[in-house]
Each structure stands twice: as C-alpha cells, then as structure tokens.
Design brief:
With about 210 residues, the protein is an alpha+beta fold. It contains six helices and ten strands. The strands form two sheets. The protein has a five-stranded mixed sheet. Strand 4 and strand 5 form a beta hairpin. The radius of gyration is 33 Å and the shape is rod-shaped.
Length: about 210
C-alpha cells in the first residue's frame, strides 16, 4: 500500500476523534449561567448579605467584582448564592477534604481465633495481639470454630471466649452480653473503650494543692 493511502486513513481517524463526544465534567455547584432560579439570596465572600436579588442583578454584582456567582444552597427558600472566586473556592474545599480524610480514623475488624483446647501460652499470645489491636482503635472479633471432634466442648469454648473478653476489659468492651453461636462458630466482638475526658479539678482542690505546695 502507498504512503498516500496510510496518510488518508490517519486523517480520517483524526477527524473521527475530533467529533467524538467530549466527557461531561459535572460541577459540585451551580455556577454563573448554570443558575436558573429567578431570585436568589446573595452573600459576598466576606459575609455581607446583599439580600434577595433577581438572577440577572446577582450575576451583574458578581461580574462587577470579576468574581463568580456560586449557588451554595439550592434547596433553600430562596436559594442562596455566594459571590467568590470559584477556582480558589474549589481548591480550598479540596484541600480541606483531603485533610479531613487524612484525619479520619478507619476502624478495622481484626479476628482472633482461639481453640477450645488452647494452651495458656497461646492464650496469652493471642491476648497480647488483641490488646494491641484495641489500643490502635480497632475492633476484635474473638472466634472459636468447633470442629467435629470438639462439638462436645461447646460450654468450655464459651467460657474461654468470656475469659478472653474479660481480660480485654481494661481497654475493651463487648458488643453484646454473651458470645454468639452461629453454626459451629462461637464469636464475640470486643470494641475499644471510648476515652473519657479527664475531669477538671475544682477551684477548691486547686487551691488546696497550691497551699500544700507552699
């Protein structure tokens, strides 16, 4: 095939690509001409309330300041719009969302498997693992699977789970009063205890401490 033929194919491909539908980028907020409400409450970026304005007047107020009209509360009566720099607004919001996501604590459910005939050393090792998970803010699911040869040890297995949960009691609390039996599995969820805020000393107690130190 000639070079001319390949060149024509390449040109056709470029033309077809140019007419492909472009992806639609949806904005989080209605901005400028996308706002269709007849009247809106207008607030400046510094908090100044301009009152309820016709949409054309509101847009004019934004244009006069070389800023954008952004509808921040479309379901309000009337809808609330703010005059601001939309690019800067999106950047700051994205930055705040990123910080909030970074600070968000993700609680995981860690499983600790025991045995109805577990030895004391293994029990204490599993307990140390569970306490570590709880200190990290995670939940712990304590389970014992009763295989065929252990089905007669159900009561003993329940006692082991209860004892395990009891030893987690300093930093953990059980979800439910007793272990749950599902099929051949005994399980109990232990959650980290919520840290109580430190009690503030009363003025009298503080004064006593000062007098003692003096």
């Amino acid at each position: 095939m000639s070079t001319f033929y390949f060149k024509k194919i390449f040109e056709v491909a470029i033309i077809k690509y140019a007419y492909l539908p472009k992806p639609i980028i949806k904005e989080l907020y209605l901005v400028n001409e996308a706002i269709r409400f007849p009247k809106v409450m207008v607030i400046l970026d510094d908090g100044t309330n301009l009152g309820v304005l016709d949409i054309k007047k509101a847009q004019q107020e934004a244009d006069n300041r070389n800023l954008d009209l952004v509808c921040i509360a479309p379901n309000a009566q009337p809808p609330v719009c703010k005059i601001l720099n939309y690019s800067k607004f999106k950047y700051e919001k994205k930055k705040k969302d990123k910080v909030a996501q970074k600070n968000q604590k993700i609680v995981e459910l860690k499983e600790i498997q025991l045995s109805p005939v577990i030895m004391e050393h293994d029990f204490n090792t599993k307990l140390s693992q569970a306490l570590k998970f709880l200190e990290q803010g995670n939940k712990v699911k304590v389970t014992i699977r009763l295989f065929r040869r252990y089905m007669s040890l159900k009561d003993q297995a329940i006692d082991i789970v209860n004892d395990f949960a009891l030893k987690c009691g300093e930093i953990g609390t059980t979800e439910g009063k007793k272990p749950i039996l599902e099929g051949n599995t005994i399980q109990l969820i232990v959650s980290p205890q919520k840290k109580k805020p430190a009690k503030k000393e009363t003025v009298e107690k503080q004064e006593e401490n000062i007098e003692e130190n003096n």
